[in-house]
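Hi all, posting the design record for the shared folder.

TITLE: backbone redesign
STEP: 1 of 1
STRUCTURE INPUT:
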């Protein structure tokens, strides 16, 4: 046996006290480092290489800003809020991430998936408060002031039920719910950063995230169809929203607005064609085509001068005010109503941001701090919630555009924020006549990437069937039930898959590769030779309480010997033999009779004398696992069969020692434990 190193015992109490003293101590240098860690911009901005970086940052910032404006206006439909709030969200998120983010390339702002999750909570609370969810009424042609909110829904609602002793219209209540939800989600993210709970993201596998995004994309697509064809149907809420919405669409298809249908068809053709051409010739283009902005500009002009709203009753965006609304503290009582909804929102927002940050950091050879990213995205939610904004996250599509246009640092985010600010201060009212069907087209075309995941299912199935099943379950639950249930179902199902894999793992009997000291699965490889009188059994999983029975059943089946049944058969034979001897007055019975009795009671000859258990795949043992190995050691010993363990890792060896597998003084350890299968086989041959 190799000698184990003696590790010095660590006094955990003293270590924790030392860490606590270190963290609680305050020196000028430590305070400076703390501030600079919390605001990474203080570290990298003084080192900014203006001549080298500025052109790429300005170019990418302008392009992202141009893309952000139409997307922000469009995604307001998903969130169930007015377009002005989406513009606020895009502005503040870029500024705060510039100050606190550690990734140079991700684009943080409004994201379709997050907007959908916010919109579902807003719709539910509006419905519970007694508001009409139908948002297709003609817009007010007011002076652009936010005080004229939701004149089409004139029934003011006294919010004493949630502790707001004032009358509040539909829009006021909707943004109140959204800001409360955003604030709580941000608090969750900051708390996760403080307590270093970033490991939660590990439970969201790639299959779960892809399935969740695809299922949510189907929900987003379904929610936009009514705008595409210009029909007025109630906004469905709760579980099964996708199915109910499609039923309502087909029931009301005869009421489709021809103007909206034609506009939608033209916009989708233009957008898809431009996207496909952009993808095909992206290496030749210095920056992506601003197709969304061109479509919005042309559609707004056509709608305004063609009077599509007045003549054809086409639904338009309505008045978008300029400037900023005075900040307002999110209502605490509303936070209590949405506290549970904020948790999945916080996790999804953080996971997408950190995964994208890590992906691009690896691609461009720099490092990010996941914990600081959690703080950054948390404050991108907390601070903007005071300024009538809703939840944000990093978005893959905009991040790809950002990197392809030469982005070097988060200075590009400030440039994008300035573009949005320009729209907020001066250009917002120009979008009054923009048709909602155009915004719906932009949203649907932006889902191409997620919907294309369906094409990858055969390849995914070929790579890993279990991961494909996780993807299908998550996608189906997200689309057919709800996004929150889909995410939870995906996490739970993926964990169950792991449990099932360890409960019923692969098992094998090994044979020797000829003229070598190596052993492999006899069923998988040709020309392996069996070792006479030795069985080598491999179990490819940890041995614990959940798979104990499967371990024993597999061992007995593959060795073709159940020691308990064999021992019982031998006892029965011995008892029968004693009865025969007693009846014949201790005279020997004839040989034929004995052979017949033996054949009946001991059905077969045991063809091995040594069992070698390959423990190379057993990563740990619990108490049940140790007891199981002790049990087979005892049972096989009763049949004069030796049990040898090979390739145990130190953790397994320690568990066996603590469990008394080797006896009190470990004296027989050298004859029971081997560091390779071949050593165990050689020992077995010597003992024979």
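Okay, here is what came back for every position:
SEQUENCE:
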């Amino acid at each position: 046996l190799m000698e184990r190193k003696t590790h010095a015992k660590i006094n955990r109490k003293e270590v924790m006290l030392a860490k606590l003293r270190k963290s609680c101590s305050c020196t000028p240098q430590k305070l400076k480092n703390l501030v600079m860690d919390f605001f990474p911009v203080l570290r990298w901005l003084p080192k900014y290489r203006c001549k080298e970086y500025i052109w790429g940052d300005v170019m990418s910032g302008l392009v992202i800003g141009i893309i952000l404006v139409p997307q922000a206006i469009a995604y307001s439909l998903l969130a169930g809020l007015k377009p002005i709030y989406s513009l606020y969200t895009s502005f503040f998120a870029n500024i705060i991430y510039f100050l606190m983010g550690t990734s140079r390339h991700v684009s943080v702002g409004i994201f379709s998936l997050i907007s959908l999750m916010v919109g579902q909570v807003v719709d539910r609370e509006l419905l519970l408060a007694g508001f009409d969810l139908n948002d297709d009424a003609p817009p007010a042609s007011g002076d652009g002031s936010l005080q004229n909110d939701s004149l089409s829904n004139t029934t003011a609602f006294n919010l004493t039920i949630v502790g707001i002793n004032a009358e509040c219209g539909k829009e006021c209540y909707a943004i109140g719910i959204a800001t409360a939800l955003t604030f709580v989600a941000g608090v969750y993210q900051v708390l996760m950063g403080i307590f270093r709970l970033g490991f939660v993201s590990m439970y969201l596998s790639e299959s779960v995230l892809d399935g969740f995004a695809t299922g949510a994309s189907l929900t987003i697509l379904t929610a936009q169809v009514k705008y595409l064809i210009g029909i007025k149907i109630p906004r469905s809420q709760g579980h099964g929203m996708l199915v109910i919405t499609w039923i309502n669409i087909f029931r009301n298809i005869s009421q489709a607005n021809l103007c909206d249908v034609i506009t939608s068809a033209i916009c989708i053709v233009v957008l898809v064609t431009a996207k496909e051409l952009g993808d095909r010739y992206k290496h030749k283009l210095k920056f992506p085509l601003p197709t969304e902005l061109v479509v919005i500009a042309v559609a707004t002009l056509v709608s305004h001068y063609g009077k599509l709203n007045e003549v054809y009753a086409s639904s338009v965006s309505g008045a978008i005010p300029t400037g900023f609304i005075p900040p307002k503290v999110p209502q605490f009582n509303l936070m209590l109503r949405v506290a549970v909804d904020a948790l999945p929102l916080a996790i999804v927002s953080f996971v997408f941001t950190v995964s994208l940050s890590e992906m691009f950091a690896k691609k461009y050879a720099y490092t990010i701090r996941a914990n600081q990213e959690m703080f950054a995205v948390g404050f991108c939610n907390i601070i903007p919630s005071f300024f009538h904004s809703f939840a944000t996250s990093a978005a893959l599509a905009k991040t790809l555009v950002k990197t392809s246009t030469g982005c070097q640092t988060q200075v590009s985010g400030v440039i994008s924020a300035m573009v949005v600010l320009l729209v907020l201060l001066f250009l917002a009212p120009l979008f009054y006549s923009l048709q909602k069907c155009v915004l719906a087209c932009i949203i649907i075309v932006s889902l191409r990437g997620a919907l294309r995941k369906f094409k990858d299912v055969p390849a995914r199935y070929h790579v890993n069937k279990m991961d494909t099943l996780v993807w299908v379950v998550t996608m189906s639950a997200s689309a057919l039930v709800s996004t929150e249930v889909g995410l939870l179902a995906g996490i739970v199902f993926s964990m169950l898959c792991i449990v099932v894999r360890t409960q019923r793992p692969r098992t094998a009997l090994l044979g020797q590769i000829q003229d070598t000291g190596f052993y492999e699965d006899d069923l998988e490889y040709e020309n392996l030779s069996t070792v006479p009188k030795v069985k080598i059994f491999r179990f490819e999983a940890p041995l614990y309480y959940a798979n104990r029975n499967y371990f024993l059943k597999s061992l007995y089946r593959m060795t073709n010997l159940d020691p308990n049944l064999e021992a019982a058969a031998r006892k029965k034979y011995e008892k029968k033999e004693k009865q025969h001897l007693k009846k014949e007055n201790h005279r020997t019975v004839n040989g034929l009779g004995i052979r017949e009795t033996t054949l009946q009671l001991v059905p077969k000859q045991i063809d091995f004398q040594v069992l070698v258990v390959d423990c190379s795949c057993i990563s740990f043992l619990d108490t049940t696992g140790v007891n199981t190995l002790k049990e087979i050691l005892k049972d096989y010993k009763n049949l004069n069969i030796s049990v040898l363990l090979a390739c145990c890792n130190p953790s397994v060896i320690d568990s066996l020692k603590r469990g008394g597998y080797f006896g009190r003084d470990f004296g027989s350890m050298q004859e029971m434990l081997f560091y390779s299968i071949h050593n165990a086989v050689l020992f077995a041959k010597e003992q024979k």
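COMMENT: The chain has a mean pLDDT of 85.
Let me know if anyone wants the other runs.
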